[in-house]
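Recap from last week: sequence in, structure out.
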Amino acid sequence: MKEKKQETNILPRGSKILHDPLLNKGTNFSEDERNQLGLRGLLPPRILTLKTQKEKILKNFNSKKNDLEKYIYMIALQDRNETLFYYTLMSEIEKMMPIIYTPTVGRACQKYDHIFRRPRGLYISLEDIGKIETILKNWPSRQVEVIVVTDGERILGLGDLGANGMGIPIGKLSLYTACAGIDPSKCLPITIDVGTNNNNLLKNPFYLGLQKRRITGKIYDDFLDEFMVSVSAIFPNAVIQFEDFANSNAARLLQKYRGSYCMFNDDIQGTAAVALSGLISSMKLTSQKLEDQKLLFYGAGTAGIGIGNLFSQALISTGISDSDARKKCWFVDSKGLVVKSRDNLSSDKLYFAQDHKQIKNLYEIVNQVKPTTLIGVSGKANAFDKKIINSMNSFNKRPIIFALSNPTSNSECTAKQVYNWTQGRGVFASGSPFEPVTIEEKTFIPSQGNNVYIFPGVGLGVILAGVVKIPDSFFITAAKKLSDLTRKDELSRGLLYPSLNRIRSVSCDIAIEIYKKAIKDGIAKNIIEGDIQEFVNKKMYNPAYKKYVGK
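Predicted structure tokens:
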């Protein structure tokens, strides 16, 4: 009893505990808790179970007029009761995923200055140069395991949203908790505000970020250097995930920091891994081998190049030479086919440049290259029209079409178009969700190549192993494991990935595979004694109310 009284004494009391989202239970506080924590009269008398609270939340959720209203409602719930938020999210993951993340989160970021209600995470701006470590110390906990950081310059396919991009780290970390069981108290979203080049935001009197043009060059690099040094000093055990940086910065910052910090870029490595996994699963439907594929990328930014690099590494690991692996990847950028004869190619494009004449028209490129797989990472809606899909269908028994651009409005084509135009023979995946499609009495469930299949499990695996640097081999491991976890019955319905309702167990299995890989490679600092599965299950956060007083 004495111990329990001591625990009670260190808890906030009265309205303070009701306004702490990590401790608040709303109408679930027991009679003893209400009496001893000074809550009598601050709550209506009836006590509701967590399950009943969830049912009430879902009823209100379903009554909202549109997805943005649903997003605002769920974020408001997260701000007042984290346990109930995650209990609801995890029990309705397929319904909630498109709301708390893509595609709705993109719309939310565009409106972030209007829907902002309560601060969450840390905002670090140019005004904090020389003081970043002090700013980081304002965070109430040092026990941070995962940090997601953005500078808001390339939010999904929507462009520069500046400080409004905070919705992305918040959403990603919600998925870390829901899918991989990372304790929400150990998650930290960060937005780095270096200005914005979005003229609408610069003119908007309600915009919450710095109303000045983005800095570039040495000042930007020095600012990021100070951030990385400071964040690793204050949170030495945290995995740092870079999110939605512009193409001009994403790849070079990854190369700059990956050798010194425990970090990765989800847009490059997470996207690459989920695409590679989709390709591996596609082979089970097409009865082909990965090394027999020829990939044509429409878009040569960080996502496309990242997929090409990881695909090449996967081939090289099977014994294929570097040059032969690169010949499997063809790229199209804004100027047309990426070929060696072009001037001023960046180093990453030059690596994949082919010996071929220059062609600009995508339809002509498809017919000359004759790829087995067409991958859209351009952000250009409807780029894969009927003529192009028909061409893919004409020289492939089962053409593979990945329209990976987010949000849904930027997808290069729709699932319905691919299935209809290929008479159901097409193998399809997209970045955002599409509704099921029925062709001749067979219903296909479009695959969503969502990074959520990769980054939570990889992050958890890195935490388990205690590695200090994250190699690309982890993402190949994650991709292969994810494909292995896709069941035959799921493949038969067109799914290249496991059903989202299994995402928690999928993330757990990927994490364990990453841990084993780290042990095998001799880079794990943590050695887990006993049954690894049992250990991970106990470590993963489960949303349930704690008893603060009483039996």
